[in-house]
Design brief:
14 helices; globular; binds pyridoxal-5'-phosphate; alpha/beta; about 40% helix; about 15% strand; 12 strands; seven-stranded mixed β-sheet
């Protein structure tokens, strides 16, 4: 089976497992795990921020990041198909009392004119106040689309002007960086806080980080524990993340090339494929998924007429070519 359902399906390589086995560890709730400390310091530095906090999941990193900017009863603006709006099961409302209003963009991009019309200043007892704007880069449900850096700069300028913060869901910020060459620190400069994942294209089995100011991270450390995310000798997992940053970052370019190959085979304009995700329109998505499975390729339906293919560390060039020829016949 060639598995194109998600880049979360990667399994740790032998080299990664060896590094994990050797990791120096301590109790991270006591702040005594040297490998976690190393990872947090390194990731904070990569994005030009003061501090970072290791967590089990990207969802938890997003929840703690957004709540660091938005108080209960206030709102965050985001694109309608953002992961925080669609796929975190209402966590931002359920845990943090955060409300959301959204704009719609087929490629998940920032629509600044609409953001301007949505923005609500503090109106005392009359309207919900906007305190943050969230962007997702790359945008998962928009097919791994990269947000253009100039749009992000314009957003940053606007947000600063009206006094609201910016959150970036950077679960796949690594793919955006490799696809565009924009330095991670430049993406970091756009956002007050980011959530970044090691467990997607980078191929670590577990792990995400919230990145931000020292104060925001100190507060998030308390909330992480409060929510049951205080972990102990997790240097074993942080070691996987460090290994992934050393060995699996630049190779994301291969995943992007494989995605373009699949796109071409499926009649999708490869120019529209920014990174490692391809969305194929088909009259019967579920039928397509079943037929692909029958032919040895796993893909997922993300709507009645939309099929998603995701390339990753576990898909070689040969796999991608074989999958391309199978999917082309369907
Ligand atoms: C854009 C985006 N943000 C956040 C997440 C959440 O990550 P996790 O599955 O680790 O909670 C995902 C997961 O796929 C994602 O695609």
């Amino acid at each position: 089976m060639i598995d194109l359902r998600s880049d979360t399906l990667t399994k740790p390589t032998d080299e990664m497992r060896a590094v994990m086995a050797r990791a120096e560890v301590g109790d991270d709730v006591y702040g005594e795990d040297p490998t976690v400390a190393l990872l947090e310091e390194r990731v904070a530095g990569m994005f030009g921020h003061e501090a970072a906090l290791f967590m089990p999941t990207g969802s938890m990193a997003n929840v703690l990041a957004v709540r660091s900017l938005v108080a209960p009863g206030q709102e965050v603006l985001c694109e309608a198909s953002a992961h925080i709006a669609r796929a975190e099961l209402g966590a931002h409302g359920a845990y943090s009392g955060v409300t959301m209003r959204t704009w719609i963009h087929p490629r998940g991009q920032v629509d600044l004119p609409t953001v301007r019309t949505l923005f609500a200043p503090d109106m005392g007892p009359f309207f919900v106040r906007t305190t943050a704007i969230s962007v997702e880069n790359t945008h998962n449900f928009a097919g791994g689309a990269v947000l253009p850096i100039q749009d992000l700069r314009d957003l940053r300028e606007y947000a600063t002007g009206v006094g609201v913060a910016v959150h970036m869901d950077g679960a796949r910020i690594w793919n955006a960086h490799v696809a565009t060459g924009v330095p991670l620190a430049e993406y970091g400069a756009i956002a007050d806080v980011l959530a970044v994942c090691l467990s997607k294209g980078l191929g670590a089995p577990v792990g995400s980080l919230m990145v931000g100011s020292a104060d925001a991270i100190a507060e998030a450390r308390v909330w992480r524990k409060r929510m049951g995310g205080g972990m102990r000798q997790v240097g074993i997992l942080a070691a996987a993340g460090l290994h992934a940053l050393d060995h699996h970052l630049e190779r994301l370019a291969d995943d992007h090339a494989h995605a373009r190959l699949l796109a071409e085979a499926c009649g999708v304009d490869p120019v529209a494929v920014d990174t490692n995700i391809v969305v194929v329109q088909h009259a019967d998505a579920l039928g397509f998924v079943a037929a692909a499975r029958e032919a040895g390729v796993l893909v997922s339906a993300v709507g009645p007429t939309a099929v998603r293919l995701v390339t990753h560390l576990g898909v070689s060039r040969v796999d991608a070519e074989r999958a391309a020829s199978v999917l082309a016949t369907l």
